[in-house]
Design brief:
- The protein is of the alpha/beta class and about 525 residues long.
- Helices cover about 50% and strands about 10% of the residues.
- The protein has 21 helices and 11 strands.
- A 6-stranded mixed sheet has the order 1-2-11-10-8-9, sandwiched between helices.
- The chain is globular and about 75 Å long.
- The protein starts with 6 loop residues before the first helix and ends with a helix.
- The structure holds 6-O-phosphono-beta-D-fructofuranose.
């Protein structure tokens, strides 16, 4: 249904007007227990949503809107494999990759088990030095050639969890700019390098041209022509593929037994749990990969079984709708106070903006209400020295997710106060952005109240505090699944198909036409 025609929508509009005059500080003063009530704990993640322009009444209306849009029915459709990706007539079953499929088709779980067993076995073979190059050298470096969903998820997880000193090392190259591939290959030994040609369609131009360049690099080293017999043999020993298009991979020169498949019903931006995650399995081993899946599974079950007020994905989804559709905000920031989440905002940009950056609804009608906001982000404390000035004293309302992780307990960090300070900064900035100088201790507050106008802090920036009580493959899997389900639910509210991406086609066609003209 068009959400603006629901009863809840009109009520939320009126409710927003009632709340508009109240600041976050006034809400905090008026309700001392909200910081205790407005918390959700699940999957070793804690969501503290007290610093938002909401009251208990708002939450009732959030749930009413979810119910009017049939969120529970849509959950069932997705998890049971109904073709909810209507423009491509496909199921959306990334949840099946982590054993959360609720449908009756036994082939789904069989296909997952079979494809997983294959790429797990290959990953272990690479890790144990059983996969050799053309000159029988053991593989020490693996380069994932992929872009979008065939890069961002694996890159995020490998950067977060891989031991950079261990072999095989895993590298990522996505962009068509030759600098990225050459800078990566410059330090590698061709005879010990394996390439993963990671492309669900096996037709994405950037990945294809990078694969050709990588093959040329190998052939130059072996002093053979790319198209002669040895050149082709090198494709069989120094490449493998992760794709849905086995035929195209085979035509390129990758033997079928080295093509690890993902099914049509796994969308690119939801595919890290599939064979597209081969680089993860190679970098971390399959036990950690299984932990990643287990964390996502735990979040799936939480999402399916928990009532709204304790449902973490649902709460994040509705808070985003609240600001985008009732407060007129058009941006959303994700600040991670953790180096291990360096690529999290990049990953979320594709997940959320490629899913919900749309203006046509499920009935093919033009949409006249806001859908996905512009998502940006970065790391704390680094961003405190770049765009936090705008967040504190600018003229833009910026709802934020401020993410932190429990300080690292490995011996190398236990006496290092920096991890504690990192966590404290996350908390300090959350309060400062929400409450301004009111959050200061009394003496400091008085001092700051007397400062000149350039020290004016409008505050009132709403933010969610998301804290991982431990950081490992399990909690990272749960965190990613949390945002997958937030994204899915926002699409349900906005009445859009979150699982196609026709918007990426025009630029590609325009490029092709220009390239043809310039030939
Ligand atoms: O950006 C368009 C897109 O199709 C993404 O949805 C996808 O993740 C990316 O390109 C790469 O596609 P493929 O894995 O088929 O190469």
């Amino acid at each position: 249904m068009n959400p603006t025609q629901t009863a809840a929508w009109a009520t939320l509009n009126a409710h927003k007007k009632n709340l508009a005059a109240l600041s976050l500080e006034q809400l905090r003063q008026a309700d001392g227990s909200r910081s205790e009530r407005y918390k959700i704990c699940a999957c070793h993640i804690e969501l503290d949503y007290a610093r938002h322009h909401i009251t208990d009444e708002t939450l009732v209306l959030f749930e009413q809107l979810l119910n009017e849009q049939g969120w529970r029915a849509w959950q069932k459709k997705m998890f049971s494999g109904e073709p909810i990706n209507t423009s491509e007539n496909r199921s959306v079953l990334h949840v099946a990759l982590r054993d959360s499929y609720k449908g009756a088709d036994s082939h789904i779980s069989q296909e997952v088990a079979q494809t997983q067993a294959r790429f797990f076995a290959f990953a272990e073979a690479v890790r144990h030095g059983e996969i050799k190059g053309h000159s029988e050298q053991i593989i020490t470096d693996v380069v994932n050639l992929g872009i979008g969903g065939s890069d961002l998820g694996p890159r995020l997880i490998c950067q977060a969890l891989a031991d950079m000193s261990a072999q095989p090392r895993v590298h990522f190259v996505a962009n068509i700019d030759p600098i990225e591939l050459s800078r990566t290959l410059n330090s590698l030994d061709p005879e010990r390098t394996l390439f993963i040609l990671s492309s669900k369609s096996f037709s994405t131009m950037e990945t294809q041209v990078n694969a050709q360049a990588a093959h040329a690099w190998l052939c130059a080293h072996y002093r053979v022509e790319p198209d002669d017999a040895i050149g082709l043999a090198i494709k069989q020993t120094h490449f493998c593929a992760t794709s849905n298009n086995v035929q195209a991979a085979s035509a390129w020169g990758i033997p079928t037994e080295r093509c690890y498949t993902l099914p049509e019903w796994v969308g690119g931006r939801f595919s890290l749990w599939s064979a597209i995650g081969l680089s993860i399995a190679i970098a971390l081993g399959i036990e950690q990969f299984k932990q990643l899946l287990a964390g996502a599974h735990e979040m799936d079950e939480h999402f399916l079984s928990t009532p709204f007020t304790n449902n973490m994905p649902a709460m994040l989804a509705m808070l985003g709708v609240w600001y985008g559709n009732f407060h007129g905000t058009q941006v959303h920031g994700v600040i991670s106070y953790a180096e291990r989440l360096r690529y999290f905002a990049d990953y979320l940009q594709q997940l959320e903006m490629e899913s919900n950056g749309k203006s046509i609804d499920k009935q093919g009608e033009l949409i006249d209400y806001p859908t996905a906001p512009v998502l940006f982000g970065g790391l704390g404390t680094v961003t405190q020295h770049s765009f936090f000035q705008l967040l504190h004293q600018g003229r833009v309302r910026v709802p934020l997710d401020i993410i932190s992780v429990e300080p690292d307990t490995t011996p190398a960090y236990t006496d290092d106060t920096r991890t504690q300070d990192l966590l404290l900064f996350a908390q300090a900035q959350s309060d400062a952005l929400a409450y301004g100088i009111n959050a200061l201790p009394e003496t400091l507050r008085v001092e700051w109240q007397s400062k000149p106008t350039y020290s004016h802090f409008p505050a009132n920036q709403p933010n969610s505090r998301i804290h991982l009580s431990t950081f490992n493959a399990h909690t990272l899997g749960a965190l990613i699944a949390l945002y997958e389900h937030k994204t899915f639910l926002q699409g349900v509210i906005w009445n859009i198909n979150s699982f196609d991406q026709w918007g990426v086609e025009l630029g590609k066609v325009m490029f092709g036409a220009m390239k043809k003209q310039s030939a």
